[in-house]
Amino acid sequence: MPVIHLTDRVLIRASGPDASKFLHGVITCNVATMAKGEARYGALLTPQGKIISDFLFYSESEDAFLFDVPAERAEDLLKRLVFHRLRAKVAFETADGLAVAAVFGEVAEVPEGALYGDPRVAALGGRLVLPRAAAEALSSDAAPYEAQRIALGIPKGGPDFTYGDTFPHEADMDQLGGVDFKKGCYVGQEVVSRMEHRSTPRNRLVEVLFPQPLQAGQQITAGDKSVGLISSVTEGRGIATVRLDRTSDAKAENVPLMAGDVAVELRRPDWASFSMDWEKKVSELDRKFQGN
What we know:
There is one protein chain. With 292 residues, the chain is of the alpha+beta class. 21% of the residues lie in helices and 31% in strands. It has a seven-stranded antiparallel β-sheet. The chain has a five-stranded antiparallel β-sheet with strand order 3-4-5-2-6. The longest helix has 15 residues, at 71-85. The radius of gyration is 20 Å and the shape is globular. The termini are far apart. Keywords: Transit peptide. It holds the Pfam family Beta-barrel_CAF17_C. Residues 12-105 form the GCVT N-terminal domain.
């Protein structure tokens, strides 16, 4: 596979003596424990716990970090980071001289740059941060990478979930290491923690398999009820947002799941651990009282 210039991504640099401490208290991933050259998956949330933007996050040094963010979200993310900064000694800037490339599959030669392993799933390969001039000499056809992403069931903000209206659990960020539930406070933490420990998300992004070609935007139905929406597709499979309670009811009642006149199958991604049967989480205290 080629090394692909991801033209829909932008890099934002955060630097300064307070960068690590400030960012650790604002975004969902753990910044304090990062080593140089390490990557994390994370997001900046609203106070209500919804995703403003997700991103891959790279440690350049002890006090310098890069956000690998969708281009459409970069301006708003930068503005909000500056808003939260207050008196912290940290500066933000768009790294206009740098670009991002995806490196995956069998690659004969990787251009010179900083290579970070994708922290979500190893099969996604890595992200190469390199000078923009060098990136522009690469292929910018992202179709092979998108096919790999969809085949692995990895959600993408925009096509698969809506920024500003989606909780991290609904975007499977909790399954992909995008939220550190042990690190303490960050913007939106209280809502996300409550969803993790006291309830279960109603919607999840899952894999959808189909024997005939389908298109993004098609509804998944069980009888006369809508149970989901297909958002990304590649050959024979895709990603869909589904109501887990409704799909569980359909399964219990042996009602087929359909996209138009095509029968589809829903499957939990290999990297996920949530229940497809809407099983209620049982706390350690519940187990104690139940004698388990």
